[in-house]
Amino acid sequence: MERKSRRLSYILRHHPESIGIKLDEHAYGDVQKILEALNITIEDLDMIVREDEKQRYSYNGDHTRIRANQGHSIPVNVDLKEVQPPDILYHGTATRFVPSILEEGILSQTRIYVHLSQDIETATKVGSRHGKPYVFTIDTKQMYEDGYKFYLSENNIYLTKIIPTKYLKAST
């Protein structure tokens, strides 16, 4: 099921065309076509959605369509709520990216938004997926006061477009 979950993430966040589907304007894809492409049952898909520790996925009201809640590299509208963030959030990355981040800030790269964690532990986990982890503390209070916009995804991930270097502080 782990492989199927990763494939689902790939399809819904990056390449729906890889299985011949189009996402609608709110990033939902057809459940039936996804079941066929992944060769799984609706019970399997329900289990993937329910047991995903990051709560990456959500169904529409009648469970005929499914979407990834954030992390897209394709232009979609997942109905993000603009919010005032907590005063401090964290960003986990790998140590090999620290020099370029200190020079350029945190950029969304291939994704639409930069993802921010509410605690150091989660940010460390995120960073460790890419190598030896490094965590930045982000002065989101000052960013917000300076006019930067923040959004909260359906699964409670804070998102923003860019984090300039002046708002970064080393956590680890």
* Shape summary: elongated
Number of beta-strand segments: 12
Number of helices: 6
- Fraction of residues in helices? 25-40%
| Low-pLDDT residue spans | none
For the largest beta sheet, what order do the strands appear in spatially? 4-9-10-7
- State the assembly state of the protein chains: single chain
- Which CATH-level-2 architecture of the largest domain? Alpha-Beta Barrel
Rg over C-alpha atoms, rounded to the nearest angstrom? 17 Å
Secondary-structure content class: alpha+beta
CATH topology name of the largest domain = ADP-ribosylation fold
CATH class of the largest domain: Alpha Beta
Q: How many independent structural domains? A: 2
Please give a handful of descriptors for the protein shown.
172 residues, alpha+beta, Arc Repressor Mutant, subunit A, ADP-ribosylation fold, 2 domains, 4-stranded antiparallel β-sheet, 3-stranded antiparallel β-sheet, 6 helices, 30% helix, 24% strand, EC 2.7.1.-, Ptrans_KptA/Tpt1, Probable RNA 2'-phosphotransferase
